[in-house]
Inverse folding.
């Protein structure tokens, strides 16, 4: 009786490369996201004493993304990056189940990350076009996540034909699952929409930032911080190519699916980083990245004070209500000119030894009594 020759389980160079990249990107970007987000949350809670809904969203997003990173590492452990003939049946059993979980969680975790960014933009940019756009995107992502997750979970009906290795190898599987081209079209459609929304979110703050009168050094620094989101935009675009194995119907899913996995991790982790970097403004200021508000070269010494006033074209003050620490009378959005991206004001000098940042800002209101006054309002005015 003939017996089949044993399979050589020695990993090839391309397998070792994919495994190393998978581990490196998931662990590296995951650790970076934890450090940046934790620092942001510490600054917001303990230095600024201003922990808002976007900070809670960031915390939830970080928990979701860290969970995904853990699942992703397990997917790599059980065979991602290896050619399928080098994966044992027991490993395949776990791999298909975990990869199915990743696919089902993809849009939900993406929604958590993007919600934290959108809520952050709503807080720091109390400008009508930002408020309307972010609200529209939040509604869109909610509906998109629900519908897209349903499609991913039920690309086979019943779903066990997606993740159970016994049913995956069933000869009648095609009767219960989408054709390969349909699955490819669904996931490509999702990736393209997410990429387009990422571009919108990336560009959204720039008109407002460009209209603020700052010296070139601080303008470039702020633009660089907000522009860090370009990395999060690149990830879903590169994922386009990693989805090709759905179109070709490749059976080497453990190897072909590895790049899609780690680009998902890059997208999530760098998305959180991009949404958190602007909140590290006080830390950057201490390190001199943005310069000091007392630096003669920075122009007006109060130029970066959190105590500011936004004027319309008729030099009418937008708001006169003071907000002190702990006050509940707070506009939906602290301006981008507040302490998240601005130096401390003079009132914080008396607490330098305690390293406490006190802020006094004007509450910004955009109420208009008539159409003319609404038309005359500017998103950003000069600093006091």
């Amino acid at each position: 009786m003939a017996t089949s020759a044993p399979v050589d389980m020695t990993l090839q160079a391309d397998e070792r490369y994919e495994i190393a990249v998978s581990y490196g990107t998931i662990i590296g970007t995951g650790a970076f996201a934890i450090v940046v987000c934790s620092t942001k949350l510490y600054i917001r809670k303990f230095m600024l004493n201003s922990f808002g809904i976007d900070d809670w969203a960031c915390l939830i997003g970080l928990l979701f993304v860290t969970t995904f990173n853990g699942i992703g590492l397990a997917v790599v452990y059980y065979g991602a990056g290896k050619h399928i003939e080098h994966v044992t049946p027991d490993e395949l059993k776990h791999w298909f189940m975990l990869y199915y979980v990743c696919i089902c969680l993809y849009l939900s975790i993406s929604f958590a990350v993007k919600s934290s960014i959108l809520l952050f933009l709503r807080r720091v940019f109390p400008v009508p076009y930002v408020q309307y756009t972010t609200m529209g995107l939040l509604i869109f992502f909610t509906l998109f996540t629900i519908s897209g997750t349903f499609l991913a979970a039920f690309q086979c009906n019943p779903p066990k034909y997606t993740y159970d290795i016994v049913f995956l190898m069933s000869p009648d599987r095609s009767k219960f699952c989408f054709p390969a081209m349909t699955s490819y079209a669904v996931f490509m459609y999702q990736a393209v929409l997410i990429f387009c929304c990422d571009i919108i979110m990336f560009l959204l703050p720039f008109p407002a930032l460009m209209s603020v009168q700052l010296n070139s050094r601080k303008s470039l620094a702020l633009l660089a911080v907000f522009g860090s989101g370009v990395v999060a935009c690149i990830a879903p675009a590169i994922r386009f190519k990693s989805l090709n194995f759905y179109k070709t119907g490749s059976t080497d899913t453990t190897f072909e699916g590895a790049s899609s996995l780690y680009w998902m991790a890059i997208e999530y982790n760098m998305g959180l980083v991009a949404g958190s970097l602007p909140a590290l403004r006080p830390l950057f200021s201490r390190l001199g990245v943005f310069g000091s508000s007392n630096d003669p070269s920075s122009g007006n010494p109060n130029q970066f004070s959190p105590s500011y006033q936004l004027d319309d074209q008729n030099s009418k003050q937008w708001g006169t209500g003071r907000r002190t620490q702990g006050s509940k009378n707070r506009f939906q959005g602290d301006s981008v000119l507040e302490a998240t991206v601005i130096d401390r004001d003079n009132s914080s000098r008396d607490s330098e030894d305690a390293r406490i940042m006190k802020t006094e800002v004007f509450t910004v209101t955009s109420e208009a009594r008539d159409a003319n006054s609404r038309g005359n309002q500017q998103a950003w005015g000069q600093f006091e």
